[in-house]
Structure formats: structure tokens, C-alpha cells
Amino acid sequence: AKFYRQWYDRFFTMQKPPEWVINDSGWLLAILKQQDGEILWEYNDLDKLCDVAEQYNLSTIGLFGWAHGGHDHLYPNYIPDHLMGGRMVLREAIKRAQDRGLRIILYANGKIMDTSTDYYHDLGIETIILQKNMSPDIQFYRKQKNRTPVIFAQACMGSEIWRKTMTDLAVQALSLGADGILYDQLGVLSPIPCYSPYHDHRAGDSDIKCRMDMLREVNKQIKTMKSDFIIMTEGLNDVISQNVDYVHGYGPAFEPSANAFPELFRYTFPEVIVTQRNRNPAITRTDMNYAMIYGLRHEVETRYAGDVKYLLTGEFSCDNYANEVSPPDFSKMELTSGENASKYAHSLIEFEKKNSDLFWYGKFIDEEGITMEGAKDVIAKAYLNDGRMGVVVWNKNTTEKLNFKVSVQGFYLKNASDPQSDDVKAFSPIEPNSIRLLIFERTTDNMNH
User: Fold this and answer.
1) 144-194 per-position pLDDT tens digit
2) Computed from CA positions of residues 50, 55, 57, 61, in that sequence, does the dihedral angle turn out positive or negative?
3) Which residues pair with 136 in a beta bridge?
């Protein structure tokens, strides 16, 4: 990892995000209008979404499905919807959210266009990926079981027209008062050869270089208009990370699973700010602890009418999701009440804020220099900021207290704390599914110790 990062730094410069992103605790991802046209939240309901975000202690709201077509429909046409309140109501609702101290991100898909749109009919030949047989690369998305799938052709960033379309969407987001734009799929989709004769690449090349060009173009134009306006992507890789401010987590590393291995990327690129992935309207204690120990920002999602009921009233029933193709994880939602979930989320994020010099400004160094003794279910990860090191210890076992001990060469233990107390016994048994923060200071920083 160190060797690779040294090579990377010879050729690339990592973009530094605005201060508000560094201090962002995470976001509430909200689909306002679904693919089938069902309105879940009107623009004025952004006030209620702010209430939910504050309940969980999240400081940003991502608006998906905010345009007239709903989510995964009519892209790349993103027109404020008069049925949800219209352009001015949206602007005013965004301003009210910002007055409460929250940030607003608007969604746009960076790679696909709906084949039913006039955009595809009129501009498709100049903007789509053409395969070797000159046919488009087709995807389809189906959100409701009783709805016909929406067909999309994949766009190529090698098209100057498509890049301008993406830039125009960022300018529109800024005109609506948003704090940033998310370009979906740019960090997810792998290189696909494009044989279009109309694009800024050789026949058979992918559009990866042009993706970078587009992001640079947007950064250059939009940040002269508002310096702290941000660009987000869904998913990440080392190349795209140099041009984005914030990343929406995607893939097995961003949520607890048997195959999760976030350490490698986090160690190699510790300054990249990434959210966890939580496709549910509540967040479990395990998901919160997982995100904290690996330095991921937190997420709660509201995608369906059942999610709205759950967040506003606490009502949960599997029947509320009978028509949804990819409902939330019911097993997670049944673990605890929404009230208890939000209380734990709020307290853990407060703990992160209190120790932001380590969690948000420190450098993730994984287990480097740490000696860990104890049960296998107890893990420890470290954050370094000058002469201070924070070692986060997590007992992943959900039923048993466990013993452990941590030492760090060249550092002495100063104190230990957790979300419930500023002063705990450092190596007392740790409660099930709980975290503890051990603060170490470099020995040479204080010769009296």
C-alpha cells in the first residue's frame, strides 16, 4: 500500500474537500418520487426529512428521485416537478434546510439515459456507447413488481454533448441552492470499449479518461461560482477519487459482511471521505460500529412508502413492501425499534464529533504499530493525528462481554472513553457489540511519562 501510494502521488493530486465535508457525520438518502410516479415526499416535506436527519444526528440530506420522472426514469432530464411543489418551492425548502445547518445534495445519473426520452431519440447517436457491432449498451431497472422495466442506454463521457449535459446539471443544482451534486455510477461501472466515431477517444477505447476530464470541467466551472459546492460519486476507485469531494459507498466493503475488507483502500487513501451503505430506514448498532471503526460516514435511506411510515410513525410491516423489488433488510429492521436505533446513532455520532480530531482529521493507519491481545471477536483500528493516536476497539460479539488489551510501541495510554462516559477503565471487559476509544500519546511528547 505504501509503495503504491508513493507511485500514485508522483502522478496524481488528491482533491481536498471543503471543511464542511470533513466535518460531515453522514447523510439521509431520500427518494422523493419513485420510478412508478408515486410521490413519497413533496418538496415541503423536506422539513420532515430534516427532523429525521437531526434525530439520527446526520448533517446532510441526499435528494434522489427529486425530478419529474422520479427515480430511475426519464434520465438525463431532471426537471423540478410541479406535482411535488415546483421549482420555487424546492429552492425555498432547500434554503430552510440550510438555515437549520443541514446540507443538500441533488442526484443525477452520470452514465445512463432513458431510451423513451426525446434526449435519447435526438442525441443518442452522439452520446451513447456504441459496441463493436454498433449497437448500444443496454441496461434496465425495475423497482416495482407490477411495473414494466425502464430501458436505459449507457452514455459515453467521450461525448462532448454528454459532458455538457452533466455540467449543466451541476449548474442547475447550484441554481436551486444545493450544496452539491452526486453523479451516480461514475465510480462503479468498469471500462467498456466504445466504437463511436463521434467521441473524443479512439475507436475501441473506454471513456475512463473522459470521465476524469468531465469531473475536472465541472470542478473548474462550478467552484468558481461557489467554492464549497461539492461533487459526489457512487462508488470509488483510485483514479476517480482525485476529482471528487465525497463518495457514496457501494460494494461489499461498505457494510458488514463475510467478504468486507475496507482496510486496504482506507489505509492507502485515508483522506478520501466515504459513506457506509445502509439500504434501510433504520440503522443497526452493528452497522454504526462498523462505520465508526473504519472511518466511514453514516447513512440512513428512505426509498419506499413503507420507509416513510416507519420514519414518521415507527410502523413496520413486511406487507408495506409487497410490491418492491428490493425492499429493506427486514431482519435488520426487526432487531430494534426506530427510536432505539436513532438514539444509538445520535450518541455515537456525538462521540465522533467530540473526538473529531482523530475520527475526522486523523489518519487511518489500521493496526500498524498496535499489539492486540484478547478474544478474536474484539478488533482494534487506529487513527493518528500528530502525536496523538486513537485506537478504536470493537467487541463484535453480540451476546458476551470480552477481555482485551492493547499496547502501542512508542506511545503511552492517556485515557479511555466511550459514548456513555468520558472516563472508563481502559482494559475492563468490553460490553457486547460496543466500542471503546483508547487515547495514546507519543512518549517523546512528554518526557514525564
Assistant:
1) 999 999 999 999 999 999 999 999 999 999 999 999 999 999 988 888 999
2) negative
3) 130
Q: Order the strands of the 378-385 sheet from edge to edge.
A: 363-366, 378-385, 388-395, 434-442, 411-417
Phi, psi of 72 (to 5 degrees): 60, 50
How many angstroms separate the CA atoms of 106 and 67, rounded?
10
Helix (H, G, I), strand (E, B), or coil: what is residue 87? helix
C-alpha radius of gyration, the chain, whole number: 23
List, in order, residues 6 or more apart from 353 with CB less than 8 Å away.
25
Q: Check residue 449 and give its pLDDT.
A: 44
Q: Return the SS3 of 191.
A: coil
Q: In this structure, what C-alpha cell is assigned to residue 301?
A: 435511506
C-alpha dihedral sign at 39, 44, 48, 52: positive
Q: Are 436 and 430 in contact (CB under 8 A)?
A: yes
**According to DSSP H, which parts of 240-386 are helical?**
263-268, 285-294, 305-313, 330-333, 338-354, 356-359
* CA dist., res. 231 & res. 245, Å (int): 6
**What is the separation of C-alpha 30 from the centre of its chain, rounded to a whole number of angstroms?**
12
First to last CA, the chain: 33
Please state whether 307 falls in left (phi above 0), alpha (psi between -120 and 50) or beta.
Answer: alpha
Grid cell, residue 220, equals 473548474
If we measure between CA atoms, which residue out of 291, 292, 174, 182 comes closest to residue 227? 174
| Order of all β-strands in the sheet with 230-234 | 246-248, 230-234, 180-184, 103-109, 60-64, 26-31, 298-302
Angstrom CA distances, 94 to 180, 232, 297, 398, stand at 12, 18, 22, 40
Split at pLDDT 50, 70, 90, the class of 258 is confident
Residue 273, C-alpha cell as written in the block: 471521505
pTM attached to this predicted model: 0.96
What gap in Å lies between CA 292 and CA 278, rounded to an integer?
Answer: 14
**What is residue 247's DSSP assignment?**
E
According to DSSP, residue 402 is labeled: B
Tell me if residue 19 falls in helix, strand or coil: helix
| Of 258, 260, 328, nearest in space to 296 by CA | 260
Tell me how far apart the alpha carbons of residues 294 and 289 are, in angstroms, rounded to a whole number: 9
Report the C-alpha gap between 212 and 420 in whole angstroms.
45
Cell digits for 181?
A: 451534486
